[in-house]
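Researcher: We're teaching a course module on how sequence relates to structure. For the next exercise, students receive a sequence and then see the predicted structure as tokens, so they can try to spot secondary structure elements on their own. Here is the exercise chain.
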Amino acid sequence: MAVELKNLTKRSENYSQWYNELVVKSDLAEQSAVRGCMVIKPYGYAIWEKMQRQLDDMFKETGHVNAYFPLLIPKSFLSREAEHVEGFAKECAVVTHYRLKNDPNGGGVVVDPEAKLEEELIIRPTSETIIWNTYKNWINSYRDLPILVNQWANVFRWEMRTRLFLRTAEFLWQEGHTAHATREEAEAEAVKMLNVYGDFAEKYMAVPVIKGVKSANERFAGALNTYTIEAMMQDGKALQSGTSHFLGQNFAKAFNVQFVNKDNQLEYVWATSWGVSTRLMGALIMTHSDDNGLVLPPHLAPIQVVIVPIYKSQEQLHQIDEKVAGIVACLKDLGISVKYDNADNKRPGFKFADYEVKGVPVRLVMGGRDLENNTIEVMRRDTLEKETRTCDGIGQYVKDLLEDIQTNIYQKALAYRNARITTADTYDEFKEKIEEGGFILAHWDGTTETELRIKEETKATIRCIPFDSFVPGDKEPGKCMVTGKPSERRVIFARSY
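Model: And here is the predicted structure for the students to work with:
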């Protein structure tokens, strides 16, 4: 077992504890001095940067541009869209004063009561209200549409139960906010961006996802429809990994955003919003990692290849340095991120353990015998398999190996997920299967009352009404497993994070 990980809890013993320990031991993040907030450490942030960079490119390929809007939102803005404010009211942090002063009684620093704000400000839980108040100044005619804007930002929601990356009070995300002249265009935009998220999850994160639409009870506050990608973690729980919302004209009406259409008539604008957050880091960790540490997909790994020398003298190290320099140059020319760790601060065994827990996809090791034989040891992180290869052509071999690892971890996650998609026809059968975890396809009568009853009694929620079929007949009508009333089709239930 890796030296650094001898105290890591096994997944089979306590999955939640394994996750919490792994986030810290792999140097991704740690708790901060602020309740519910985390410090994302350099290695963790490097992964987020790669996610951000790739997603940003994908957004721009679909015509979107970046902008930035204020962190603070006037409280009156939230009250303009009733469903929206109700959905976020319990999570809002409120700024009431703008100045501190020294306590004349010696109690340290206190809020200056004379510095009370005329209108309280909300630290943004999401930005629909401030953005639509802004769009009112940008939109007059159909010629001003569409507006395709994305924002990279932080948001704050006063969460009671927090866990690093999965649910924190402050988190990083992107939020797209678009304005359109027609309902059809806005609905198409919402689905298009969901597909962008799905492509990113599968092609870069190597995380298989199910695309679908949320039930009315699970929609984003203020949306007419919420589309989602749902991933399955190794403990059988679901993780909502990205959402896209068709907002209709709700926010346009709340902020009186109208435009003159081609027939010279006033009409309210149609809207979407969509976002993913640092919760994707949690998905990445829980989908692929093992009892030895992180397993990172090569497409998002900050370090794709690490090279470690084993030497008996400084002269031998110098010879290995010269040999490895050519390999490093070759790998970099092929677009591979590589680190040569010849620092004399840890024994090779400790370095192996460190890079293993950090999930570096490929490790190369060169010792004295390798130097003589023109060979190098290659280990792949996903399977921990080792082999000795000639240095001739090693660059292309490693490049191909990285793609093989990317494919392998996706296929492994896909096979696991598909094996844990089952059906239930009766409520008793459902209650038994939900204890085993996984996605359960079952009939539901479409009512919020039944949905809430299932959630209260089993802690399972409707993850989505899937776009695609997953078992024969899942789109055929049937009877609700709880009430026996007619059901249009099966929906996906699971316990979730």
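Model: If you want an answer key for the exercise: Residues 1-5 have pLDDT under 50 and may be disordered. Residues 228 and 243 are 4 Å apart (CA to CA).
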